[in-house]
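Example 5.3 — Endonuclease/exonuclease/phosphatase domain-containing protein
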Amino acid sequence: MLDDTLDLSASLDPGLNIHPLCFNSGQLKIMHLNTQSMVSTFNELLLTVNSYPLDIAALRETWLRDQPQLLDYVSIPGFVTEFRNREGIRGGGVGVYIKENINYRRRRDIEYAHPELEHLWKKRLIKVPGRNKYGRALVGVIYNSERMLSPSDWLNSLENLLGYLTVCWDGMLMLTGDINIDVLRPSDHLAQRYQGILDMFELTQIVKRPTRTTKTFKT
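Solution (predicted C-alpha cells):
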C-alpha cells in the first residue's frame, strides 16, 4: 500500500518487493520481506540486503524477542535496526533496517495510539529547499495476523489508524507489510472493504502480482 505519488523502478528484480520512493532530492529505496524467523534465515537476509542498494528493509514475522544477544546477532553493519517484538505470544513481530546515513525518528506515538495492531513507524526527513511535504516521508510496516484480530476487526483498526494519520501527518506516506487479504477476488467482502479503505485515504496498492505459489494475491 503506497501513496500514489510513488514510482517503481523496472530495473529491480521483480521477484522482490523493492520499491523506490521518489522525492524531490532523489529516491528512497525500500524493500519488504517476510523473514519467518530471522535467526534461522539471517544468512539469506544478509545476502539479500547486501545485494541491493537499499535504504530501508522492512520485515515481518521476525519471530524475535527483546533479548540483547538475539538482537545483536541480527545486526547488519551500516544499518540501524528497529524492532517491535511480541510479548508472551510466539511468532509475528515487525522490524526495519535503516541505512546509518538516513535521518529518521521512530514514531512510537502512532504505535501506542493503536496497540492492538502489529506495526512500526519511522519518520524520515529529506533535505529539500523550502517547506515541501515531499521532503518528509512516513514509512510503516504492518502485519495482519489472524491470531491477533479477526479480519473484520483488523480492517476496522486499519481504517482508524489511517484516519489518525490524516490528522497527525501531512507528508508522504508509505505502508509496507502483509495485509493477508486476497485482492484477486474482488467480489470477496474483505477485499472490497480493504479497497474501500484505500480509496477513502487516497492510497494505491502497488504490488499487483500474486505473492503466493497458490496464485492467490494476499497483499
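Remark. The CA atoms of residues 58 and 96 lie 4 Å apart.
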